[in-house]
Amino acid sequence: MLVLERRPHLGGNARSERESTTGIEVHRHGSHVFHTSNEQVWQYVNRFTEFTSYRHTVWATAGGAVYSLSVNLGTICAHAGRRLAPRRRGR
Ligand SMILES: Cc1cc2nc3c(=O)[nH]c(=O)nc-3n(C[C@H](O)[C@H](O)[C@H](O)COP(=O)(O)OP(=O)(O)OC[C@H]3O[C@@H](n4cnc5c(N)ncnc54)[C@H](O)[C@@H]3O)c2cc1C
Questions:
Q1: How far apart are CA 59 and CA 75, in angstroms?
Q2: Between the N and C ends of the chain, which has fewer C-beta atoms within 10 Å?
Q3: Total domain count for the chain?
Q4: Does 12 sit in the ligand 1 pocket, CB within 6 Å?
Q5: Does the C-beta of 18 come closer than 6 Å to ligand 1?
Q6: What digits encode the pLDDT tens for the residues 7-51?
Q7: Is any atom of ligand 1 closer than 6 Å to the C-beta of 35?
Q8: Helical segments of the chain, H only
Q9: Nearest CA to ligand 1 atom 39
Q10: 82 occurs within a structural domain
């Protein structure tokens, strides 16, 4: 296979590199998060590189309270100060 690349490195904008003095992984073109729920895809991409484990958590503040995002039933319960449950279809 022939790969042509005009930059001095492969990987395009998703490339990262180790900073030589600290060993810290630096994303020169902005950080990139890879996610898949497909085990076959995960096995495939792991043939080419190692991934750094990362957990993405987003929080929002509103009215002096802190809520987790994205919005789910727990977020609505916290905001409403009530214990709500999903309504089952057909009932
Ligand atoms: C700041 C930022 C954050 C991002 N975060 C995420 C993320 O978290 N998760 C995610 O999935 N995606 C993210 N993306 C999107 C992701 O970067 C792109 O979808 C992905 O890089 C596209 O890959 P690509 O190989 O198609 O193109 P590119 O990464 O752009 O690579 C194309 C390569 O082709 C080379 N090239 C172009 N023209 C020629 C030519 N004529 N001859 C030789 N070589 C050439 C370029 O130099 C480049 O290296 C982010 C993008 C940015 C900018």
A1: 10
A2: N
A3: 2
A4: yes
A5: no
A6: 999 989 989 899 999 999 899 999 888 889 999 999 999 998 888
A7: no
A8: 39-45, 73-80
A9: 6
A10: yes
The answer on 83 and 62 residing in a single domain is yes
Evaluate whether residue 22 is within a structural domain.
yes
The reply to whether 83 falls in a domain is yes
Q: What is the largest CA-CA distance in the chain?
A: 63
User: Do 61 and 38 share a structural domain?
Assistant: no
Within-domain flag for 91: yes
Q: Which domain holds residue 80?
A: 57-91
4 CB under 6 A from ligand 1? Answer: yes
Residue 69 has pLDDT above 90, yes or no: no
CA of 51 to the centre of ligand 1 (A): 18
Read off the tokens for 87.
């309504």
Unique residue bearing structure tokens 């987003």: 58
Q: Are residues 39 and 65 in the same domain?
A: no
Query: How many angstroms is it from 61 CA to the middle of ligand 1?
Result: 33
Pick from 22, 23, 3: nearest CA to 11: 3
